[in-house]
Give the backbone structure.
Amino acid sequence: MISFHQASLKSFLVVTSFRLAFALGFIAPSLLLLTGCPQRDNSALVLLCPSGKVTDTITPALKQFQSENPTLKVRLISCPPKDYYTKALSLFAARQRVDVVWLGQGFGMFASRGTLLPLNKLMEEEAGNGKKATARNAFIDSALSLYTYSDQLYGLPYGLDLEVLAINEDLFHQADIPIPDDLWTYEDFLNIARSIAGQTALSKHRIFALGMSEIPPGFIGLSLVSQDGNHFSFTGAKALNWLQTNIDLRASGALLPTATEGQFDRLEEFLSNRIAIMRIFTWEIRDLKERAKFQWRLLPQPKNTDNSQYAWASSSGFSIVKNSPDPEKAWKLLKCLIAPEMQVRFSETSVPALKSLWEQYADNLDERERAIIHILPTIVPEPRIRTAEKVASEWRYWQDKAMEGQMTPEQALEIASRRIDQILQKP
Amino acid sequence: MKERGTTVLLFLTPNLVGFLLFTIGPIFFSILLSFFAWDLFSSPTFVGLDNFTDLLGLEFSTGSGVIFTSLIVGGVAFISACALKGKPAVRVAWGSCVAAFAVAFTAVAVYGIPTSPKFWQSIGNTLFLLIGLPVGMLGSLFLAVLLNEKIFAGRFFRLTFFLPSIVGGVGIFLLWKWIFNPYYGPLNTALQVTLGITGPAWFEASAWAKPAMLIMNFWSQIGGGNMILYLAALQSINPSLYEAAQVDGANALKRFFHITLPMVSPTSAFILIMGIINGFQGGFDAAYVITGGGPAGSTTTVNYFIFESAFKHFEMGRASAASVILFVIVLGISWINWKFFASRNY
């Protein structure tokens, strides 16, 4: 039999233990909230780069860098590649610490907003110390020019990203069309596209002649914005003809439908034998080599009637953020990331930016990839402007309107020209 | 009493502080920002009403003469109509006034080119997507009525129809993206196999992108939370009303229209108001995941436009101005809704 005292002691213990557990349940998280998580090491350099291939390539190099420089800590922020540039800009705007940032074709958006540190002085000092690897003349000129804004150098490249055309030779054979050579012209290119689109046997299988939603304007030497970045330069008969050609090719089914973001994976479609000619970038060639189960080869951009040839290109490399609290250490990290051994590692995705590595790179190309060699002298850098994203989006809007038949090409060009000029001239 | 007030205030303080800091503060900051141009990197510049005129403004390359003349004629007719009070000619003057203003309004609509067509288009797209709301409501009510009956595996169906509310958005959008894929998506394949027709390009064509979005919205709107609200409303109807109607000889259809529908009308009003508000504020996630607002801006909703202006073009002032306009639209519509439903008794 349990006595009264025993019973009250038991209930006291139960109630008290419940109360204690309840209090601890509140106190522990409250204390955690008050004290916060362990503080982040603020002395660590912060490197921002897109996730995927870039991160995979630099991770082992970072480990090596840290083992060689035990006093220097590096924190890597790997950002998803979709909207990478706008995410990076948002980080800068939020005053988040970033010391070194990976930049490619979106470089202009950063340099024009004054977010990057000019490297001219650091480069001169290096040259004074006799360091050859970071001397200006060690780099391919066009690679360096892609990181120049207002005569200032804001980044150093580890590679050049080039655009070439890949052709599916099996589909050419099926369509009974002779395979073009490196000297093909713009007219040849259009005729081939029309011929493939006209082949009913192929169209039944939804095969696209061209793996692009429009012919790149650069093929005929046109650019949306003038080289000085002050006005819309996509005007005149040449531009009108370009737009009309695209409308006709779209109607004949030669072009891909309007490329909505992420809707169409060009490379996957090409690898599935559904595209005859495709724009391909150097970072995609490795996948093509490993996965294609058909005969293919690369071709340079077709030549114009005046024999001119234009190729799109962009640099991939790193810049130092202007607000970096430790630019000297950031410079050290940057030099490691663009060192020759890193450029060799990156050569699977881009052409090395150092002249000394070019020969070795060219020797490693197989017969099907030789077109890359012909591209280099034809590179035309795109103007670096602050409003690149807005200009591209505005142009895409009016171009789509014309392509969808919602207005005439003349109207679309006229309105686009007026509006893009307004965007470019806004202070 | 005073002590009680202090205690109440003390208890409310944490919430009030949060509300002021994270809700009211940003609202006022956003309204203030709408009068500035700011790209986050340089200091904000005061631009007055420029952001609003840029978004809502119209420009005229032709037709300005017609508008100007009509406005003058309309103005003169209005003054004459006021002056001729009581005289027989007043009707003619009022008629001329109305006609002239109608011509001016038509000319504005015909000749006016919006300075920001993308913004107007985004409003149009948002309104278009609201078409799905009444259809979704009817569907939800229909399902709720069905599930309110004692049917086989009723609980299973309740859960199934509630699924759209539980499953995460991005996954669903990716699934719909695959369903609508014009080349290997099941929808076009089914159309080809069953009807022998080649399906449209859905999200890749501006004519079909919005209907595709609408179909996708039906799926999430029919069933889900709205269905549960209707189910709750149906279960709170007094069964004696149905019994009395049955005694009076009312068939199922009459019982539905004369009892069920009026009794669930407060729920319908609630769903409609919330649906309109959510509809104006929605559409971002689907546009971001599936179409990127394209093709040709056909799936850009106001919310996506705001996101694009703020975080792609870094035009915070313009994005804030668009938010303020959206706020005014939602406020106006909610007020009309409230007035409309408040004047009715249920």
Observations:
- Chain B touches chain A at residues 39-41, 118, 177, 182-183, 201, 203-207, 209, 290-292, 294-297, 308, 311-315 (CB under 8 Å).
- The beta strands of chain B are 36-37, 45-46, 58-60, 112-114.
- DSSP finds 17 helices and four strands in chain B.
- The radius of gyration of chain B is 26 Å.
